[in-house]
Amino acid sequence: MTLALDLNKLLIPLSSSGSSLQRAIFSSFSDAPGGFSEEMQEINISFGLEWLIGNVFALRGGYFYSHPKKEDRRYFTMGAGIHYRKIVFDLSYLISTQLRNPLNNTIRVGIGYNF
Description:
Order of helices and strands: EHHEEEEE
Number of strands: 6
Strand content: over 45%
Oligomer: single chain
Shape: globular
Helix content: 10-25%
């Protein structure tokens, strides 16, 4: 069983014209007009749980949240995966918690290879 938590923030400042890569990354943590509290609103949070059965079949569920004043995306996901030798086949279904979300009822398919 795997429990995962992901916190991510885009490392692109509001104004990055003519900035070096390092300067752009570090300035993305201090460029919000609302200060530190607005910077915290730019962090997307997602978490999930995966249950791997016999190293062959996986069941998953999770939730994604971004602040309503920023990207405003909130949805649940559920899915399954099959591990066949080194190849992984994944299927997930997205259930939005918002009335008008273009991602609602999205089916995602993935194929991976384990080295």
